[in-house]
Predict the structure.
Amino acid sequence: MKIAALRLYNVRRFARKGVAIEGIGDGVNVLCAANEFGKSTSFEALHALFFQPHTGVPKDVRNLQPYSGGNPLIEADIVTSQGRFRLTKQFIGGKRATVESLDDRRLIAQADEAERFIAGLVRGGTAGPAGLLWVRQGITGIEERDRKEQEGERRVRESLLTSVQGEVEAITGGRRMSEILDACNEELGKLVTPTMKPRANGHYDIAVDNHARLVEEEKRLSAEVVALREALDERAAILRRLTELEEAGGRAERRGAVEKAEAAFEAAKLHTQALKTAEAETALARSWSDAAERELSGFREAMQQAGKLSADLATAEEQRAKALYRRAEATAANERAMAAVLGAEAEERAARELLARLDAALKAREAGEQLSGLRERLARAEALRVAQEEKEAALALAAIPAGSIERLRALEVGIAGLRATEEAGLPSVCVAYEMGASDTVLMDGAPLADGEERSIRDHVRLDIPGIGTLTLRSNRPAKANDALKAAEDERRGLLAASGVADLAEASLRQSQAQEITAERDRLRFELRHLAPEGLAKLREEVARQAALPPADLELTGDPEEARRSLTLAGQRVESARNVAREVQPSAGRAADLLVQAEAAHAGLRGEQSRLDAILGPEEARASRERTLAHAFLERHSAFEQLEARAAGLRRTAPDLESVEAARRRTRSAEQSAIRDEMELRERLANLNGQIRTRSDDAVEETWREAVEALSVAAGRLRAFETEVAVLVRLRTALQSSRSAARDLYLEPVLTELHPLLGLLFDDISVAFDEKTLLPHTIRRNGQEEEIERLSGGMREQLSVLTRLAFARLLARDGRPAPVILDDALVYSDDDRIERMFDALHRQSREQQIIVFSCRQRAFSKLGGTVLRAIDWQPSVT
Amino acid sequence: MTYRFLHSSDLHLGKRFGNLPEDLRGRLREARHGAIPRLADIALKSGARTVLLAGDTFDTETPAPDVRRQALAEMAHHALLRWVLLPGNHDSLQAAQLWNSLRTEAPANVVLAMDASPIELASGVVMLPAPCTTRRPGRDLTSWIDGATSPEGTIRIGLAHGAIRDFSEEAGAADIIPPDRAVRSGLDYLALGDWHGPVAVDPRTHYSGTPEPDRFKHDRPGQALLVSIAAPGAVPEVTPVETGIFAWRTLPLHLLPQDDGVTLLTSLLPASPLRRHTLLRVAVSGRAGLAGRTALAAAVESAAPEFAWLELDAVGLMTDLEASELDLIDRAGALREAAEALQAEGLDPARSQAEREIARGALERLFSYSQQVAS
């Protein structure tokens, strides 16, 4: 939409006058006039045309009326994508609103339809910014303001980016939204904590507590009412039961039953006692009868035994006599055998003594013979000793020191070797004789045979016949034969020491010495044989033997004879003892037999006397037996009679236990009835007390009251819950629509704002407050500044730029809207204004901008279309 | 010989009204007690000498001693009258303690109809009571009257307490008194209690209703029945007499969107002097705008102090929001968006009733906040 013309008539100072601003074009339009010109009037009229319904007469409308009265008429020509239109509104009197097409002069809409048409122009939907963008220092509506308010407004102008705020608020709700949210939160906060718990001691909390308390109260009272009703019911039941118990029939019946049972029990008890007595008597009779029977049978048995016993006794006496005789015999035999043993033993002793004596004499003789032998041996041993010593002496003479012979032999061999060596080194002489030569050469006097080679020791003299004497000299060095000489010296020494001439003699002497040694060794052996422990020991032995006392050498006799007689004596002793041993046991047996016989006899005698005691004198025995048999018969029949009587009683005896049980049962039935009655009465008294107390407390009334109060409290609680839910829902709705608005518009507006800011300021960006969505800080050269700290000029520039950004946004959306600035740049300096103008022009390529200003001089530089107000008369009034 | 008596029931003495404000409770209780002297006055003035109370004289089985004693004292005070008390379902014979006390304390002119046996009220007039044995007897207690014969020429008056129709859903058929009990059992009149509003079942069978109403349900003034029986078999002459002090009324108010609810309400409210003794429930239905609704609530609130009790039941009232009302919140922008979202939610049939109510409430709240913080 663009505005092409504005006309007004009868508006404020233009009473009965009209003014028209025609030819408002695209881009920047400037209406620059002094303050009293009616600039603001135009502005407010324009606002009223678009935002005040023609039917209403609010203050804002009445303000348009001139003091002299009259009906304000406002008219505007607009251009939209649909065509050109004229909007007309007359207020207060002759109210009307029309929309006319300027293309074909057709009336498009009037009254409410015209209002709807206008609304469609200025509101591009509820969510977007208005189709007209006003910059009038934060005032979007035309309101009556008193002086104080105007003062306040000025302050607001100075302190806030109010016009931006207005537009932002149009989208986001802005401060109103914040205030409403605050109010909502405050009210919610009175009820609940941030975690949605009822706030302590708040109304909600009290309602919750009250409700809870009443729930408890109701529960308690209802329990009491139930208890009371139960008590009443129980009491009724008890009363019924008591009536039953107290009925005469029941009680008497129980009494009769008890008495009957008691009588039955007594009868049964008597019967039982009678039975017991009869049984005791029977038992006594039985024992008497048994005793009589025992006595009788005992007597009869004793009789039989007595008969048998007398025969036994005779036999026993006979055996006893026999035993006595046998014992006497055995005793005699035994004594004889013992005497024989004693005799044999005496003989044996004598034989042994004789033999001993003979032996001693023999030993003495042998000892004498031994002594003489020993003496002879001693003599021989001493002779041997002498011979041995002689040999030892001879050996000392003949002995050559050990090793001398071997040394001599070695020296002999060495000397021969040395000599041969010397000989080989000597010059030699040899003569070969001519055949037939007669003469012989003498060497040192000794002929030298043909071809014989002789060695030349130191010098030699050859006598050559016929010729003369030839001397040969070897001229050997002086010490040439020192080793030989040393060996020969040692041999000489050795020979001299051994006292021999040469080695042969030494060997001879050595063999002599060996013979002597052998002889000595033989003697020594012989001596050791004779006196193995030495001569001294032998001598001692001789002396000891000689010292033994002489024995009875005179006893003679044959020891063999004596030994034989001793053996015989021993045999005799042995046989005598065997005889005695044989006899002895038969004597013992005879004694034992006698004891047995005696014992049997004595036993039988005792038995006989016992039986005699039982049986009494022989003559009375038969009559006694008769008496005993009679007594038994009597006793037995008495017992049988009693037994029959007891059996009769036993048969008819009643079951005492069941009779007693019946008695117990009837008694306990009666007692429990009595106890029941007592308990019931007790319980009844108790219940009466309870019921009276509860009745007097009027629990049921109280309970009903509590129930009613509870329903009220529950209602109140529900109301609070609903209240909280409502507030929460409202808060959610507000928050979500605000953030949706921010997402939808604020970001795009910031995008649009950025290049505009670049036009005016270097390096600047605007931050919006998260909560109110209003410009909050400015970031300039990397420094953050509070909007409130900015200069007035800068604030208003920002505000205009923001508005322009909104306009660009609308234009982008295909809904271009005019931007109307009324004295928007009051505080800006000229330099900055020019830059602002640049921004406006830049923007105005796609945008209609209408500027109202009183700063004629400054705005002369703005350029654009200059608007003029001209007088105007409406065609229709 | 015309026999004349006053028929009443359901005094519910001692009822506490726990759901109402404290001082009003006291007044209501006092008014209940006051029914006794009021009944006595009417009886005496109209020449009746007997007052039949057809059950529920006491509200509970265990009325507070003062309630009981004061009632008896009041009755004793009107010594010319004979009071017949029948056990009802609230004060049945199961409340043995109550009836024992009454038996001990009752003055000579108070007859306790505790047995199902004839009581001679006057010569030639016999009363056949059907006392409630328990809270829910589960059988027709009046059946015994069928077999109770009376000498020829006797006026037979039945006295019973309970339903003849299935008033409540829970009551089984067994408890129900046959509607034709009077005809069937040869009664000249059957005085019934239990139903708090007066009902004429047939010319011989009547519920008197309570003399002092205690709930909004019946919407009728408290009254008693003055009964005159000219002769045995004659149709009784039954005259209702108003006895109530407090009126319990429900005021239906149906609004159309364009109606001015406040004006309508003002015209419908009872005259000022009556208000002190009126408990009024304004039941609004129909549709109203946000502003209208708010105004109506404010009007009720401002009138309330004149009444014993005045409440607005707006459950049936649908709230219509007009575009202009939304404009008052905001013409555009996020607030308007929020308002429209809430409005849509409040009308969204896909949502539960509770959710819609909450959304509507939120919208109303938004409206009222937006007016508080206007511009």
